[in-house]
Fold this sequence. Notes:
Layout: H1 3-30, H2 33-37, E1 40-47, E2 52-54, H3 55-66, E3 71-84, E4 87-102, E5 105-122, E6 125-143
Parallel strand pairs: 1-6
Antiparallel strand pairs: 1-2, 3-4, 4-5, 5-6
Amino acid sequence: MSDDAALLRWVADRTAIRDLVTRYAVAVDRKDWTAVRTCFTEDATCDYAWFQGDLPTVLGLIERGLAQFESTTHLVGNHLADVAGDTASAETYALCHHRLRTPAGVADRVAGLRYLDGLVRTPEGWRIRRRDVVVDWERVDPVEGA
């Protein structure tokens, strides 16, 4: 493979991995659980800090956990990916906003976290095989007048 072809493949792989992480964030916010599932390999394992396990377990916990929120917004920030053939690792910053409305009032749960992903190229494209979530900070803010 020529240097130009190798560089183009490297750029394409890194772009595809960033797109995958962004698709995950959008799918979670839309509560599109089918689309969330397509971001992972069938044998994926995850540690989301609050819970961990195999893919069906973790996706079920995410779905049930997010059901309590009126809305969520997951913003993807800094992103680094290291591609080595058909495997890769990536670290992605995310800012996660969750709006909670209860009889006692409205609150925003906000967290700054990092997704640490182990990825693999599949016939369908890049997929997450291992995800660890590091929570750097979290807070709950009451919302006045909401």
